[in-house]
Amino acid sequence: MNAPEHFLAVKDYAAYRPARSLTLPEAIEMVRQAIAFTREQQIPKLLIDTTQLTGYGTLGTLERFSSRRNLGQGSQFGHYRGHRGPG
């Protein structure tokens, strides 16, 4: 698997800062791919910055909770601190 676009890995951590316009399901899939790549490369820490993603509007409380929960459960990094995106 190749590194996703906007993915930077250094020593013991990686940062993923995608920037584009897309739907919420597309954004979630992009983040999942970055998580999978990080896990595959055995990088222990991953920072995900979604502040430059646009196209899906402001998320409601339930959408924020559900997306954070889904990504946190799939991360297998031990903990998940959440993300901040548009809105």
Description:
The protein is of the alpha/beta class and 87 residues long. The model has no long low-confidence stretch (mean pLDDT 81). Helix content is 37%, strand content 18%. The chain has two helices and five strands; from the N terminus they run βββαββα. The chain has one domain. A hairpin with a 2-residue loop joins strand 1 and strand 2. Helix 1 runs parallel beside helix 2 (61-75). The protein is globular and about 35 Å long. A three-stranded mixed beta sheet has the order 1-2-4, with helices on one face. A two-stranded parallel ribbon has the order 3-5.
- Counted up, domains total 1
N-to-C series of helices and strands = EEEHEEH
Distance between the termini: 32 Å
Largest sheet, if any? 3 strands, mixed
Mean pLDDT: 81
> How many whole angstroms does the radius of gyration measure?
12 Å
Strand percent estimate = 15-25%
The total count of strands amounts to: 5
Q: By helix and strand content, what is the structural category? A: alpha/beta
In DSSP terms (H or I, runs of 4 or more residues), the helix count works out at 2
Shape: globular
Percent range for helical residues? 25-40%
Write the layout of secondary structure elements.
Layout (H helix, E strand, L loop, with lengths): L6 E4 L2 E4 L3 E2 L2 H17 L4 E4 L4 E2 L6 H15 L12
Parallel strand pairs: 2-4, 3-5
Antiparallel strand pairs: 1-2
Helix pairs in contact: 1-2
Question: What is shown here, in short?
Answer:
The protein is of the alpha/beta class and 87 residues long.
Key terms for this structure?
87 residues; two-stranded parallel sheet; 5 strands; 37% helix; 18% strand
